[in-house]
């Protein structure tokens, strides 16, 4: 059964939510995150927001936006009423805050979930609960059942979309519903690659007969056998995703090393070394 990649129709009109480009998703996700995790520094300056966008942790994909790109994104979001500028008491350093509580009509736990999906994209319910809870220290999501209840309300409103086959119990993957229409195919391919569906319990696992030269005697009591194929598919998918993240980080580091080497060479030339 193919994954669902568009907001479900409930038979009644759905609110028209804003669709967001990748930079817009990142900026809004960072504004929500920092409002919750570092409230003393919120609203954010342009410099702080740019740093948050390019943060190396809790971000998929990693980015390297400059302040001009972030400022252009802020201008678009302000024009749509999703961000407002708040002048500081000195009047010299403008700061920015989101308006998603009002625009989306969500609660504090709901906005933490949406922000986590904006910052990382599709993820399993278990990962989502753990990651959203870093923004909810005072009132965390207690367990998966509580998260699923919260998600059900967001799915009903089209703000979150389930990407797993109907009836799947473990490793259910969800994402936000704010992608532009032309991005849904990419999202589907990403989920198919990074989060393979768990085998159906009704499908028997084929058995294999061990070749004659392999002993079928029980192992020594002190040896714990590791059976091929016994790994949890959800854990395997998570491991693959983490590997992809590490590879992206490695490429970022390589680019940074190359940039520093070029700067060093230019400096040596300037000094006549």
From TrEMBL:
Residues 1-22, 195-233 are annotated as: Disordered. Residues 236-270 form a coiled coil. It comes from Isosphaera pallida (strain ATCC 43644 / DSM 9630 / IS1B). Residues 1-18 have a biased composition (Low complexity). Keywords: Coiled coil. This is Uncharacterized protein.
């Amino acid at each position: 059964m193919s994954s669902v990649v568009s907001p479900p129709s409930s038979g009644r009109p759905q609110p028209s939510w804003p669709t967001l480009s990748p930079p817009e998703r990142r900026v809004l996700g960072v504004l929500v995150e920092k409002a919750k995790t570092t409230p003393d520094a919120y609203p954010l300056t342009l410099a702080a927001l740019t740093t948050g966008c390019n943060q190396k942790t809790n971000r998929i994909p990693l980015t390297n936006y400059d302040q001009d790109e972030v400022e252009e994104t802020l201008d678009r979001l302000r024009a749509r009423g999703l961000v407002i500028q708040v002048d500081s008491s000195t009047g010299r350093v403008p700061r920015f805050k989101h308006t998603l509580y009002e625009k989306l009509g969500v609660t504090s736990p709901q906005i933490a979930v949406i922000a986590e999906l904006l910052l990382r994209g599709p993820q399993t319910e278990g990962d989502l609960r753990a990651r959203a809870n870093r923004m909810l220290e005072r009132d965390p999501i207690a367990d998966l059942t509580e998260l699923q209840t919260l998600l059900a309300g967001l799915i009903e409103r089209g703000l979150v979309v389930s990407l797993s086959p109907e009836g799947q119990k473990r490793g259910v993957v969800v994402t936000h519903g704010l992608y532009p229409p032309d991005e849904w195919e990419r999202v589907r391919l990403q989920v198919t690659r990074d989060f393979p569906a768990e085998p159906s319990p009704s499908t028997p696992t084929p058995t294999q007969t061990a070749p004659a030269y392999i002993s079928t005697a029980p192992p020594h009591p002190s040896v714990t056998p590791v059976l091929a194929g016994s790994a949890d598919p959800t854990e395997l998918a998570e491991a693959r995703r983490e590997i992809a993240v590490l590879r992206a980080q490695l490429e970022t580091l390589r680019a940074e090393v190359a940039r520093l080497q070029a700067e060093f060479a230019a400096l040596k030339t300037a000094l006549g070394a």
